[in-house]
Amino acid sequence: MEDKTPVTRKSTESFNTSSKILSRESWKIFQIMAEFVEGFERLEQIHPSVSIFGSARTPVGHPYYVMAEQIARLLSDAGFSVVSGGGPGIMEAVNKGAQAGKGPSVGLNIQLPHEQSGNPYQDISLSFRHFFARKVMFVKYASAYVVLPGGFGTLDELMEIMTLIQTGKSRRIPVILVHAPFWQGMLAWFRDTLVPEGTISAADLDLITVLDDAQDVLHAIFQYYEHRGFEPSVEEEQTQLNL
């Protein structure tokens, strides 16, 4: 039987709107692909690298800023590419310290309505619209994660790498928290609440190292790789490929 249901103006407009949204979403896929392709091509040669995180709101001259700059300079002079989020605050300190050293200073910038503006200390600068694409770049080429005091964004990156390592989706690398007093409350909650509740295991806490000195950060990274080298094993390469 012929369907004689009338096609109303409202249903036609709804269909046209849905089609436009679908078309826009489809083109978004190519934008996302472009971010991954550019990131892979430009960062593939930066290893060994260390990704460093911290607050965008930390002012110049603050002890955290100074510590970030020192750590980045030591790592850069030791032959590491040093990667930050490319913005102000601790990110700026990281790129500033790295650029003053021998290794490349890398900034993975994110386009935000506020806070984020690229700092001028980047030898390699990439810009992302999507957090998830940017996160992959932080992890994929990193030989270590160094995390200084920060807010939601910093904690997000920390939990991301912890989850990836814990679940075997990323190879195990040093995860170093800098400035013990800042992190002690969170770590106590992990130990005294999450472990007893069974939401994490006590062994998961061993993934984290807490340090207070820039030289100790460098030493901890070299000590971790002392007997295995910085190049990933065949199994680790496969893991990173599927990240």
Q: Can you count the helices?
A: 8
Mean pLDDT: 90
CATH architecture annotation name of the domain at 47-104 and 141-243? 3-Layer(aba) Sandwich
Please state how the strands of the largest beta sheet are arranged side by side.
4-3-2-1-5-6-7
Task: Explain how this protein is built.
The protein is an alpha/beta fold and 243 residues long. It has a domain at 47-104 and 141-243: Rossmann fold. Helices cover 51% and strands 14% of the residues. It contains eight helices and seven strands; from the N terminus they run H-E-H-E-H-E-E-H-E-H-E-H-E-H-H. A seven-stranded parallel sheet has the order 4-3-2-1-5-6-7, sandwiched between helices. The longest helix has 35 residues, at 9-43.
Brief rundown of the structure:
The chain has 243 residues and is α/β, with parallel strands linked by helices. The protein has eight helices and seven strands; from the N terminus they run αβαβαββαβαβαβαα. The protein has a domain at 47-104 and 141-243: Rossmann fold (3-Layer(aba) Sandwich).
List keywords for this structure.
243 residues; Rossmann fold; seven-stranded parallel sheet; globular
